[in-house]
User: Fold this.
Amino acid sequence: MSSECTWSILVMFCFILATGAHEGTVCTVRSSKGEEVLLGSNFTFSCIFNKQCSKLIFLNGTQIQYIKKKAMSMEVSVEVVNIKEFSTFSCRCEENPEPCGIDIKPGYPPDIPQNLTCVQKMNSRNVSCIWTTGRGTIIDTTCQLRVHGDLELGYESFMNATGFCHSTFPIKSSEMTQVVVWLSVSNTLGSKTSGPHTINLINIVKPSMPEIINVSCSSRWCNLHTDNHSMNLVEIQYSAVNGISDTFQTNNKSRLNISSLHPDTTYNFQIRRKVNHTAGLWSDWSQPKQKTTKEEAPDKALDVWYLQEQKPPQSKSKCFRIFWKELNISDAKGKIQSYNISVQEQKGKRHSIIVVPPSRNQSICCYNCSVSVSAVNSEGQSPVKIIQLRFPGLVAGLLSHRPLNNHSIALFWPKLDIAGTEYVVHWYPVGNIEGIQWTRVVDTTAHITGLQPQECYQVAVTALRSSGPKMATIKGISSWQSAPEQGPDPKPLGKDTKSLRVTWNEMPQKKRRGCLKKYTVYLMDKLKGDIHKFSVDHPKTQFVISGLSPDQCYNLWVTAWTDAGEGPKGTDLPFCTLSDSERILSLVILAGGVVLLACLILLCICQFSSVHRRGLLPIIPDPANSKCAKTYADDQSEIKFYLDQCDSSVNEEPDNVEVEEVPYPSICTYIKSFSHESSSSDGTQITKITDIMEDYISTHGAISGGEEEDEYEGEERSLDEFKFFPSTHSPFLEPLFLTGGKLTLDVVKIDCSEFLDCT
Assistant:
């Protein structure tokens, strides 16, 4: 051997030694009963170190005390008692972090195999079997199935966590009708065997899972259409959404009929099958198929009740609120689309109302009438429920009650006082009439259920009698109540030197915690510190405190009460009464305000009266359109002839010309002219006519706005004599005089005796 080879061997040996001295092999461990031990047993765990060191032992990472056999011994041990769970034991030197250790698994030995079940799927040559060992062994356990006559040593598997074993083996001959098997299970703690077990193959044949192809339904039955199969027995299972379910068997193969179903109900259908009644196994259930049956017209009348409502002002009719209960699924037989209400009055007048769900109430105003109510779905309407609307007579102080629990009360009333063939008990939360409920009884006792604790209810009992209904009421009852959660917030309405009027809002229903009985108003004198209390019955929310001192400051608060006690106070209301001087000043200011308001009202009345009069002024004709003016303009050579028409005599005192006036209250005649002495010359006559035309007063210039301003300066001077007329230039008014009228002397005659009436 060469020297190179020798050196190589030495190097390898040194490496091996170095590896053997690695920190990982500082110790070895062992258990007196191995790694898998019986659950709850005792054993010894030992650790043998390879060198002297400070020895440490750990259980699941926590250091524990150990037993040292000899002073210089390399071995230490721990006695483990009643082990219950998987545990890890480890050892190491204090100066070396690398440990050595072992995992201890507690468990059980297997029990005798039992409950063997085998299945052979249709058209399959394999048989699958499962069995149990009574309980899970916790530790790894091997299962084995051996078939008689089979050359295989066995078909092995592992037990699962729930204690089941499973094995599959082939059927090697089609002529085999039965097989014989042995079962065995084993682990490190023990083993068990059972057998022989004889299996008849005809009894373990399991058909494949069937399929529902289609479902067709009417309102009362459904037909299931399935895939083709050769099985002679089918089992049908169906269940409704409302919880109704049933199962039955039939020999029909492909079309399965299910009857006695409910209208408008959704069902889930499943089927399974097997070879016959005596042989084979049931197949797995098919996937569920869902179908809803068709609707039918409702066959049950609605439960209807009514309450009185306040009638509209100045109405002779009586007003009621009609309520009805929703039909349950079996009675509705379909989705309710609307409710038909027919009102029949005594005089023969009838009118109909349609109400759409979810609303189930309607207000009706009529006189001596009856109402019929019915529910409508896609197939028709329910029988009509007719109820006569009559105001019940009120009976006081007859009802008594006692709580049964936090959600119900018992109600009692004497029979002799409101005797009737039937009683209707209704109740609803105070302030929420939409939540009304009612029940019909023939006895004088009723149990009201479904109440909410700390809720106040209005309750009444109505006796239905041929002579007319009688009603007894209780203002407020509660199944359970406590003191209110909060107090009202007071507000002042008015005060003077010796009194205060205070009000507060109703508390929210949820804050009341029951039925309110009263309020307490507290008044504290800030100067003296005295507190006075005043009681106010519910539902009053106002109170007047009198006897106060003038110019004095107080603090006020309010609390609410139920039968369970007094609630906390609301917000404080600090205030001071008026002094005598402040009271006189306020009265003066109030009187002045009243006088000022009266003056403003009178001024408005006068203004609108003036506007009204101006709106009635007549249309004033334009004198430029008169026949006389046109004739003068066209032919001055005929002035003398014209004067003969307008003036009966040129040289004589002119006759009065009759003028037809349009009178207007408080306004003088608006046409004015002056009489002139006529001269014997023609020129004098012409001047006279010109003067008459100039003196003919019209408002054309004031109202037309269509002529030049300088043409009507004379008219404006004439209008100065009529300054008592209301101004037509008010910013609040539109022009009131219209233009465009034509005046002829054939229509208007001037009476000179009227000219000076307004001067």
